[in-house]
Please model this.
Amino acid sequence: DGGRLLHAGPPAPPTAQPERPAVPARRPRQARTVVEIRGARANNLRDVSVDIPKGKLTAVVGVSGSGKSSLVRDVLEAEATRRLLESLSLYERQSVREGPEAEVGSLTGLGPTLAVGADGRAPGLRSTVGSSTELSPHLGVLLAYAGARRCPDCGAEQRRSGHRPGSPWSCAGCGRPGTPAEPADFSPLRYEAACLRCHGMGTVSLPLVERLIHRPERPLCDGAMYSPGFYPRSYLSKPANGGYWMLLALGERHGFDPERTPWREMSPAAQEAFLFGEEEVTLSPEARITPSATVLWRGVFRIMDGWDVGGLYTERVPCPSCGGGRLRPQFLDQRVAGLNRHDLHREPVDTVRAALAGLRLPEGTPGWAVRSRAVALRRLGFLSRVGIGHLHLDRMANTLSAGELQRVRLTALLGAELTGMTVLLDEPSRGLHPREADVLGEVLDELRDQGNTVVLVDHDARLIRRAEHRIVMGRGAGRDGGTVLASGSAAQVRED
Model:
């Protein structure tokens, strides 16, 4: 088809292109007004289909075993967890236990979901009430930018040169410079701020010699030590172990035979060296466990320091350096409303709230410090309102009851001021006095008014009456349950 001349001369004028048809504008996607559950079959649920209105407080009620928790936890929570995990990369998902998928035909309109339940999932070992509610960082900001301190030499008030991070301090009386402080310096988890003796724990191990030497009339290698396990007796008494040769060298240096000399006949210096260490001991040629002739003998209690968690030979006592304050002295000296970091975290929540409410911030306090005070007061108020104002912020979260832990998590959620969430609550009134149920209901109303969908499983009549929408499961438990008897407002449920 080639080989022919089609045109020669000036360029031809462009031909008009046909007009492209106009694409109709995409209609804005309408927000869903309900969470649609279709064909839920988890546990004893019998192909349950129900709608949960968004932006309202919904109570799922029924007798125990009727399928309330199956609907909320094994359907709604399980599906929300699956969707969250699907958004992660394969590398991130390989270290997460995904669990079974929700047994449901379809579930739409769920949105971002947060489950606040008393399901026994333990918090971290270092998690406290202050860290769980994120109150500790705000108190650190207040201490750093609104705190006052006194000179350790003359006792006069120290003043800072400004309110910026790292502003230096100086004594108004003697002119001694002070250590600058930032909000992170009031966290015992920071190495630069933690007490050098207890490393931010607030307690140290106190060796108890009477627990180790329970038969002082006998030699060390012949039953003087209480040793239910391999260490210390077997490690120090059998020639096949390195500790035996170290103990012989220690005895030769201090003039005792660990196999024949009773503990009570050893010199005080020998007992001290055995328990708490010696700079060096000289091994006999038969040991052959080290190429050098001398080794460091750390002492029995220093060897076991760190692993005697159960307190077999030691007990935990307040740190003598920081007095349990967990911080270095220059940071414990800084106070706000007359309270330092230790006081703010060891006094009851109600006491701390009253102290901060009466605090007058100094002139020139940065705006973020003013906001931190307002946020701290708000969250402390939440803790008081839900009936746990008697707790202190350093209370370990894994020592709380199930109901207390759930209300701490609820306080953290309220303080975050999130909106557009679907919040699932499983018996938040557990462990709550009946007089405090109305206060908890007000907190749930406030959570709903922030623009969230609240789904509640509870047996408390006061909380159920506050719900704008109810889902009644039943009619009985187990095989007799798993169906929706009624769904709607209180009036509609009564009619059904």
